[in-house]
Amino acid sequence: MEAILDFIPLDISLVAQNFDRFLWGVWVTLNLTFLALLCGGVLAIPMAIARASRHPIFNPMVWTYTYVFRGTPLLVQTFLIYYGLGQFEAVRESWLWDPILSSAWWCAFIAFTLNTAAYTTELLRGAIIDTPKGEVEAAIATGHSYGSRMRRIILPSAFRRAIPAYSNEVIFMLHGSVVASTITLQDILGVGRWLNGRYYLAYEGFITAALLYFLIVLVITWVFRWLERRYLRHLADRRTDAPADATLEPTR
């Protein structure tokens, strides 16, 4: 046993002594990630409607926005906001500089929000387009206007069907939040890097950070499985009631 411990030099006592810093890193990570997901989701709803309805003015604008933010790495976007905007004197002299754009947290929050909004827009657009035609035709037949159909029929149905795909976006956003550690924020990975650098360690900080991310992803997975069972139960019942010899069409 001692030979194994000598071969894997992990100092658990240092992790325990500094675990309060890791808890603070968890708070920073969750706070930044879920606030960005919330704001990005709110921004994505009208943009997804514009994309799905093929609005002649807003659709090309939203398409360009989503193409840019989905086509470039989150790290580059964060660096451009945190380091790039400060190069312009007009930005430094504006009212946005001192409270917002000079803060690493706000720059990361803006980058994360714009990034997740782009991905969520395309995710919701697909869910809106895939709304069963029978639901839309029934809403039209009962006299619903376009706005009423979108608010009461199409969007609730799209939100439910988007749950499985959106769970991946939440996990990807959580993993992408490690970018915050590159602009001085003490998130989970930032604390792990600090621990390794202070005590000249190789593994302890990174392994602790990896375990914390794993536990958070496990909780997120359980939450979304509960949401799927609650809001997609009718689809599960439909698959269960299908004949044994029924041939299901492949899905994308």
UniProtKB/TrEMBL annotation:
GO terms for molecular function: transmembrane transporter activity. It is a multi-pass membrane protein. Residues 26-224 form the ABC transmembrane type-1 domain. The chain crosses the membrane at residues 24-50, 62-83, 103-124, 170-189, 201-224. The keyword Transcription does not apply. It comes from the Bacteria. GO terms for cellular component: ATP-binding cassette (ABC) transporter complex. Keywords: Cell inner membrane, Cell membrane, Membrane, Transmembrane, Transmembrane helix, Transport. GO terms for biological process: amino acid transport. InterPro entries: AA_ABC_transptr_permease_3TM, ArtM/GltK/GlnP/TcyL/YhdX-like, MetI-like, MetI-like_sf. It is found in: Cell inner membrane; Cell membrane. Its main location: membrane. It holds the Pfam family BPD_transp_1. SUPFAM superfamilies: MetI-like. Belongs to the binding-protein-dependent transport system permease family. HisMQ subfamily. This is ABC transporter permease. It comes from Shimia litoralis.
